[in-house]
Design a protein that fits this description.
The chain is α+β, with helices and mostly antiparallel strands. It is built from ten helices and 16 strands. A hairpin with a 6-residue loop joins strand 1 and strand 2. The protein is globular and about 80 Å long.
Length: 431
């Protein structure tokens, strides 16, 4: 929204009436184990916590939107097929050596370098920063396939997500991608060595039988839960998956990476423009590490909760034992997955507070409880500012995002001259 891209994210073409329910099944032609209703985008109402709310925009659509936003800035140069192969730094600058696809190399000098190059990127390694946590959970596979009106081949209705459980356990999730026939299966377990024939078998396993489909892509990857030992080495910083990686369960990744960028971005600008001391940059790690650790912990809980800890060997059997097991599973799912708060984790997305930051002045109020599900707006320093509509289409949050903002409340609002003059003297951009 601050970048002016929310309309494009919202209106890229996903059908507003596409159901987004979450349905647990043994297969699409097998037994239904649980169904959790979710609003479609066309039914979405104003969110009480934000001028925006959750939208469905796959990465293949979202990334080009951000790319065009980035390219719109005169200072931006976007280069492809270029690898970072070496870093040198001293007290004044970073010298980055990059290698182009044709093998030629060149050096780029900069005041700072930010590695946003993902878990497998070179920045963290070249900066000599290690990681800690769980380096391997399991192998996974993303299979995208296309089918015309998949609902005609089963009786579970169209949904946003089907979670598949059979005699081998919870083995995969099938999610809608574009609402027009493209679906993605995200698998759990040791799946690194699947052949093309086995990929076809996985898609038929989802359906519980044969049906016509086209495999679009198949991408192997590994689940990990790791965080960098530090987010900074001198003039080199890490952000996003380069700094922390966790299972995608819960859908916390994009917001966490954007949070890194927002935190580090304004601080770098303040230092480069000269109105802040370089010591300001030390607060990036102290603010973001606890947030990222919190996200990793919740993503792991979500993974364990989804997979469960129960013998499912008879879950698809047409027998009294099978029906008894299905009833047990239905009761567990109702207890753990009912209610929108389970699927819309506002407490994670909006509720983090920079409590121990060196640049936050504690106001003496009691810190809010750390609730990873529900979110209570707070004006405690270090918390996200509360949303309030000032007038149709304009939230109080729309006042933020460019300069620092001083809000004065009440009919007899306090005079701001001293603060304004101090900001002017120091060169702090203040609205």
């Amino acid at each position: 929204r601050q970048l002016g891209a929310s309309d494009r994210v919202r209106n890229w073409g996903f059908p507003p009436d596409h159901p987004l329910d979450n349905v647990f099944v043994t297969s699409l032609t097998g037994y239904e184990l649980g169904r959790f209703k979710m609003y479609s985008l066309g039914q979405a109402k104003d969110d009480p916590f934000s001028p925006e709310h959750q939208w469905h925009c796959p990465q293949v659509v979202f990334d080009p939107i951000l790319q065009e936003v980035a390219a719109s800035y005169a200072a931006t140069e976007i280069r492809y097929r270029t690898n970072l192969v070496a870093i040198e730094q001293d007290a004044e600058r970073v010298l980055a050596t990059v290698e182009n696809a044709d093998g030629t190399r060149e050096q780029i000098a900069a005041q700072y370098l930010i590695g946003c190059d993902g878990f497998g990127g070179s920045t963290r390694k070249l900066a000599g920063i290690g990681t800690h946590g769980t380096p391997f959970i399991d192998h996974s596979l993303n299979i995208e396939f296309r089918v015309d009106n998949m609902a005609q081949y089963h009786d579970k209705g169209t949904a946003g997500r089907y979670i598949c459980m059979d005699g081998e356990g919870t083995w995969g999730t099938c999610m809608v991608v574009d609402g027009k026939g493209l679906w993605r299966i995200l698998m759990y377990g040791d799946t690194e060595s699947l052949t093309a024939i086995e990929v076809d078998r996985v898609i038929r396993r989802l359906m519980g039988g044969d049906f016509p489909f086209e495999v679009v892509s198949c991408v192997p990857w590994s689940r990990r839960a790791l965080i960098a030992d530090r987010f900074r080495q001198g003039r080199v910083f890490l952000a996003g998956d380069a700094a922390h990686v966790h299972p995608p369960n819960g859908g916390f990744g994009m917001n966490t990476g954007i949070g890194d960028a927002a935190d580090l971005g304004w601080k770098l600008e303040a230092v480069i423009r000269g109105w802040a001391d370089p010591a300001l940059l030390d607060s990036y790690e102290s603010e973001r590490v606890p947030v990222c650790e919190r996200v990793i912990e919740e993503a792991m809980k979500e993974l364990r909760r989804l997979k469960g800890n129960i013998d499912l060997s008879k879950i698809a059997e047409a027998s009294p034992a099978g029906e008894a097991l299905r009833q047990r599973v239905r009761e567990r799912l109702r207890g753990e997955f009912s209610g929108s708060r389970v699927w819309h984790r506002w407490g994670i997305h909006l509720g983090a507070v920079y409590g121990d930051s060196p640049i936050i002045a504690n106001d003496g109020t009691t810190a809010p409880a750390d609730d990873t599900y529900d979110y209570t707006p707070s004006t405690r320093p270090g918390a996200r500012a509360p949303h309030l509509w000032l007038r149709p289409g304009v939230s109080i949050l729309d006042l933020f995002g460019r300069n620092h903002v001083l809000l004065r409340f009440g009919d007899d609002a306090p005079d701001a001259a001293l603060l304004r003059d101090a900001a002017l003297y120091r060169g702090v951009p203040l609205d």
